[in-house]
Amino acid sequence: MMIARTIIFTSLIVLYGLVFTIREQKAKERDITLELALPVSFQKIAAGYVKQLAAEMLFIRTSVFLGGVRSGTPPTSYADALGNNFAVMTELYPRFIDPYYFCQAFLSPISPESAAKAATVFETGIAAFPDDLVLRFFYGTNFFLSMNEPLKGAEAFAEAAKLPKAPPMFSHLAALLSAQGGDITAGLISLKTLLVGEKDEMVRTRYEEEIAIFEQALEVQKGLNAYIGKYGEAPQGLEQLTPEFMSQLPEIKDSFVLTYDPPNLHLIRPDSKKKRESGTL
Amino acid sequence: MRNPFDSARRVSTLARLIILDGLRRHALIGLVLFALAGITGGLLFFDFIPRDIGRASNDFLFSITWLTGFIFLLFHGVQVMAWDSERGALHTFMARPISRTEYALALYAGLALLLLALNVILGGLGWLVLNFIKGSVGAAYFQHLSFPFYLLAGAGLYWIQLMLLAVILLFSSAVRGSFPVLLLTLCYYFICTGLPVVREAFQQKGGADADQGLAAMLKWLTAVFPDFSWLDFKTLVASSDTAPIASQILLPFGLSTLYVVIVLWLACLIYTRRDLQ
Lengths: 281, 277
Description:
heterodimer, A: mainly alpha, B: mainly alpha, 9 helices
């Protein structure tokens, strides 16, 4: 009887070990998934005093997922969960800085929809850290790099440029993005403001060159407006402006390209144009 | 008319017994070891925090202290205060020349002192751990560590625990059995943490057109189920956040002290009128 019990018990242990090994094997093959975090209201109630830790744990869980996601997994398959989790952790603890960096690196590039979600996450961060220049940079670049919304990017950079320690780059980007988005006048005003405050001769020269280009583009814009005023509709191509509204179209230098997307006129940097042509912008 | 000094002596004697009883049950050392194990295990995960290491470490340490205190309140505090298996001890105490009010206050004082000892030990260890972490990482990852705010955060946490302890005494005076008291305390805690969220959601959805009657009801419910986040100062310890003004500190502490006094008063009133059988 004793021997039989020993045999049964040993067999049970062996069986357990076997089943455990099979399950572990299956676990290796199983796709890692990112679970959708529960809504922020629920987390606030459940976590109470430890809500900050709950946000940090959610961040760790998400970053572990991002570190272990199989190569070849389409990011769109986890974009919704990623966006939701970043939103939850930042709403739960807006002053925890790490999620914003990860959001910029992993959520923004997935798709314009994910970038839109990232924009709301950055807005939470900017509300918590209004003077943080890195967050402002993330917010502005997200608009034009991932969402193809240069005018919103220009607006974000123009707002950021008002901060006491903002680098001149913000105003410059606001000017360039305004022109890229079709608001050449706003871009020109920003550039002229930058020129007034700049002391470095090299930078001044660059600004002056850009102002000259912007003014040329603005002349074309005026011609366009006059055409629309007379005929009630935008021309099919810019060449229709000559000679009635302009003697000839200006020759824009290599650093910018004038593109016409009826009825809007854009002044785009060549690299941005390339991206647009390849469909990534 | 009882002599107040004699009364205070009896309260302190019984409180000392409660403390000794707590030490005998390893409530203090057990929880300190539990917290230490939590800190050791948890800090391993902080390799995953690339930037805000100071903030995350500080939050983690205060969360462990909070969790340890919560376990103390729910599993030791409730057991000591509730009228069930400890009824024998209760009757023994009552057989002594001690009033029920003195008994209730002594229970509260004894447990509050034990809780204070627990917080001081864990707070001291936490401060050492934070300094160790600050010394082991680059300055950019742990820029701020303020001792005055650390003390303030610790005091805020202790005041929250004192409020919960007072409520446990109130429930224990009114309800028999440790399990119902535990459930009631949990319900009370979740209502306290949930109510501010409900109010926030209500204000966001309703805006200016919100039902004023309901808004007023929610506001006064918060007086009964207080918002503990007013006493949560832990985020100030490891950050450059603006220091709170005096009223932001004094008001929550003053309000919660009044709350504790009122709840203790109610608990004593119920104790004096309860049938012990």
